[in-house]
Design goal:
2 copies of one chain form a homodimer. Chain A is an alpha/beta fold. Chain A has a single domain, classed as Spore Coat Polysaccharide Biosynthesis Protein SpsA, Chain A, CATH 3.90.550. The first copy, chain A, has 7 helices and 12 strands. In chain A, the strands form 3 sheets. In chain A, strands 1, 4, 5, 6, 7, 10, 11 and 12 form an 8-stranded mixed beta sheet that branches. Chain A has a two-stranded antiparallel ribbon with strand order 2-3. At the A-B interface, strand 8, strand 9, strand 10, helix 6 and helix 7 of A face strand 8, strand 9, strand 10, helix 6 and helix 7 of B.
Chain lengths: 221, 221
């Protein structure tokens, strides 16, 4: 069975307060995106890796690969205006059946077990979405009110989200909607049932300078 | 106006895989609980600090204070079987009006700003509950189903939760309920409106070895 990993990099760097998009910032000797790619290569070195980048960042990335002597084979696909269109572009390059993992470029700390469980769930149940529990109290709010909700009924969702290629391709034929914050929500909207798997606490999404410092520490330790 | 901080330590150490309860584990040269107390003393050295501890840990704590030459003045109150009863015991020692902050002993990284905003909100609106946004996707689930929810309608709740003493004392006259995961939920159940303030990302709750490592790193940096 063919196995793919689509690694989606969309960040422009604005929230980091840096010129360089966050996926290219160096932590623990190499750019964030190289760590993320390596995690999938370590998991399965026959995996077909597809990296989605904003068009204007592709040259820069290729120069980074030379600079860092980064030689894990991967295909590059141009991103779209929203994450949805970026993933759609990548899925359009896959013709065959199999399982595809869709991963945020800025999650360099995904564990081998998280990847493994999500792929295994997709192979048997059609999809596998890594999730972790919430240990703080949780409140739901609107403009005027807020109220406590039972945190044990909620999970924080991570990536890689793994799918049968045919299911997720079909789901991505839908019109784009703003509610689509991740691939599981796209699949769900197409009518399919979503299956949760165990994520890992370290698998943080790097979006601000605090996260970057934390990721550096976790990679060093 | 009188200002109080009740710092609640309930942990037994089981989830940490250690013999020593997590509030007593040493990070960055002193036990977690001493860091938490120091944050409030640094904020206002006239604050009346009340530490709630399980009865069988009180001797150990007093010996730790001697060992570490820890001399921030604080009163010790015996804890109850649930966090609810621990807070109730501490509130019973406060007679006067004023503002009280109720804080988890295992949150040694609360910022001065988080404390300040919560106290200020309590002074003007009756209460102030620190909260942070959720940046990952969120799902609600039960035994058979799960579905995406809009993460921008939810917040992760932290401590210190600050209240007008009279309001929170009245709320704690209620019967204990299992839904009471924090003081804001106790207040809310008494019919009062809850006001959210800005928390800080670093203000993590130490519940497992990963958190402890992270807290050590954050305190060192």
């Amino acid at each position: 069975m063919n196995r793919y990993a689509i690694i989606v990099a969309g960040g422009s760097g604005s929230r980091m307060g840096t010129e360089i998009p966050k996926q290219f910032l160096e932590i623990h000797h190499k750019p964030v995106l190289m760590h993320s790619i390596s995690r999938f290569f370590d998991f399965d070195n026959h995996l077909q890796i597809i990296v989605v980048l904003p068009e204007k960042q592709i040259d820069f990335w290729e120069r980074l690969c030379i600079k860092y002597k980064f030689n894990i084979p991967h295909q590059i696909v141009k991103g779209g205006a929203e994450r949805f269109f970026s993933v759609q572009n990548a899925l359009n390059t896959i013709n065959l059946e199999g399982i595809v993992a869709i991963h945020d470029a800025v999650r360099p700390l995904v564990s081998q077990q998280t990847i493994d469980l999500a792929f295994a769930s997709a192979a048997t149940r059609g999809n596998g979405i890594p999730a972790i529990s919430i240990k703080d109290s949780l409140r739901k709010f609107n403009e005027t009110h807020n109220h406590a909700v039972n945190r044990s009924n909620y999970k924080i969702i991570q990536t890689p989200q793994c799918f049968k290629v045919s299911d997720i391709k079909k789901a991505y034929f839908q019109e784009y909607r703003q509610e689509f914050t991740d691939d599981a929500s796209v699949l769900e909207y197409s009518g399919a049932k979503v299956y949760l798997t165990e994520g890992n606490n370290e698998n943080i999404k790097i979006t601000n300078p605090f996260d970057l410092k934390l990721a550096e520490f976790l990679l060093n330790s």
